[in-house]
């Protein structure tokens, strides 16, 4: 039964402006990189189907605007997220230092039932720049931070070179699913077509 | 940078449209289909505008030429045409063509009304703008009040400016319009003097049909009132500050952090917080557009930074980069600045500011409107768990730039800028949902719905159709209606904002604040000791925080060098030791400490507030309990009453029954009485009969006696006769006669005869 089920995962990408959130999303979904991305206003959205173990999973990826003031917009779509991806630029200390802030912001806005164990993911992006010579945040420092926040999985990525992007998003899907299993018991089976739409909504709001 | 889109961008590149913007590959086929239509429409509308301008503007132009403005205008036109590199300074400002002056003049009244409203009303940020401008013009007026300026003041500076540019020709108009007082900002016939603007409806239709590319830049300026807003020298002054103030390191305070609007050159040293964001977005603004070369980006940087300085309440918000670039593609730099200022300050007041209040309000308003107009769609989206605002939020914030195909974007902007308010945003969004709603209804999950809506919006190439539906189909969605809705929803957003900031501060108190204090204590034990006393007044949670701080104190004492890092996150990497010099650290930590204190005080206040709220709740709770008890008692009483009523009912029923029985008994008695009476009657009859019977018997006896007598008489007679037989009388005759007598006597003795007697 589980293999036929269409599972929806809602993923939110957060991080400072210009760290490469849109690029990562586009690399993952469209397998493309462009130097010419436009600044994201408000939020953008893409979906991608991935196979996790024996399940077909539809990932709904919400790409958010990085400028701080956009946070004050009703970020209602945080609610019901299954995973939150925090992105920073390894060449920019400030973007790393903002991670705490983004994490708190997410937890406050999304108010998940179990904030301690909510699946986060940290991506240190732009490791390709200058062959890694311009980076200011070491992997060790990033990992220490992740460990201190409840063992958040950490990946170093390059959206430009397509480094670790797929791996990271696979891991995101897997972790989100792991978190989801507990709640799944309470959900009706989505295969039931007679009332398909209501079930879909219940499964994505879980 | 003053390149006009008409002549600068050739339509050669495969994925770029006629304006030089990229067309998404998936929409390219469709774009090619529509390109021919666009060309046709463009020719048509150019002809219509030309006819219109020729028909209505001749008189006025003639007048203006007489008063000698033509020369100024010519000079400006010349200045604009000078080569890019050589004539930068000269072409910063350009006049619009004279044929548009009448429209400018007609719309000027609207601009003035808005200004009047703002300067007399309580609304702040826009009202501040002119005062700030005035401040720069007048010679160093220090510490000028940032608040409301009187209308006279504004009038004064405005007149001065206006006469600079247009001389007396315009002053007559001002005089006329000063008489007309109005507070209505919404664009409507009342904004125009009928005599002055008999062609308003014609202009409405023209604008909805689209502004020709060749005129668009200038027409937009006319719509926004760019010329009237301009204060010559102000933009240059802002640029000068810009040139002096660059290249500073990250600072805590911004130049315009306070409410004061006057700035002096000494403040410039502090770097503005927006610069880094602007720098990030420069290459991300229409990347690859032919006109946005290095010069173009420099102009964009100047424009955005100047605006951020001009209106520090807004500063720089992402999305403005697109607006500014769009304007720069169509008009000279300074014109673009004043146009941007115009619609950012008036049309979108409170929209892009730090809290983005109006933006949030508008989304609630839109949701309400969508609910009203498309109930089916809304219930579908509700079922999918999708809020319309997740999609429409970005639409509004970017004023459809990058959302719709460019032709459609520009057509929407035509109407929006002409309207003088942002109601066109709503009408366009409703028109889009109108067009694409049925397709959305077929989607089965939120992701599909969003993707489809985005893609459908991105392929809305039929701009004329879109604008037609928006302007005609949703004509009723005007500024008045929207204002009503906004007033309704604003408190809700404000409440949500304050709740959010409260939650946020609670979080930071739990997390980062404790670590901040921790670090501060590590370095400045003495200072932080004084800090502890106000901290102690706080609620329990803060006391815990302080306790936490103390327990870790010794651990942190050792490496004071790492304090700044610890402020940002607790995991300090030894390798990433901070190299800043100690004095800076001291300063920074002091600032941090004072900030923490402020936060602490704020937290105290909030705790009090919460406590009050809690007490209220408790009171209410008590009241609720009591009322619950009263209710149960009342219930019981009601029950008892019910039982009583039941009993009474029963009793009544019994009484009825008894009455009934009584009745029956009475009837039975009557019957018996009647029977007795009957019996009596019968007895009497019987008695009477007896009596009669006895009478008859006695009569019979009497008769028998008489018979006996008669017999004896007869015998006697016979004896007598026998005596006589010696005489010759036949015996048988005598016997016959005897028999005859007895026969007659007998019947008289029968009982039946007795009655007869």
From TrEMBL, chain A:
InterPro entries membership: P-loop_NTPase (IPR027417), Small_GTP-bd (IPR005225), Small_GTPase (IPR001806)
Subcellular location: Endomembrane system
Gene Ontology biological process terms from the UniProt entry: protein transport
Entries under Pfam families matching the protein: Ras
GO molecular function: GTP binding; GTPase activity
Membrane topology listed for this record: Lipid-anchor
Classification via PROSITE patterns: RAB, RAS
Record keywords: Chloroplast, GTP-binding, Lipoprotein, Membrane, Nucleotide-binding, Plastid, Prenylation, Protein transport, Transport
SMART domains for this protein: RAB, RAN, RAS, RHO
Transmembrane regions: none
Cellular-component GO terms for this entry: endomembrane system; vacuolar membrane
Family: Belongs to the small GTPase superfamily. Rab family.
Protein name: Ras-related protein Rab7
Organism: Ceratopteris richardii
From TrEMBL, chain B:
GO molecular function: GTPase activator activity; small GTPase binding
Annotated Pfam families: RabGAP-TBC
Domain Rab-GAP TBC: 210-420
Keyword Secreted: no
Keyword line: Coiled coil
InterPro entries: Rab-GAP-TBC_dom, Rab-GAP_TBC_sf, Rab_GAP_TBC_domain
Parts forming coiled coils: 593-706
Keyword Coiled coil: yes
Record protein name field: Rab-GAP TBC domain-containing protein
Species the sequence originates in: Ceratopteris richardii (Triangle waterfern)
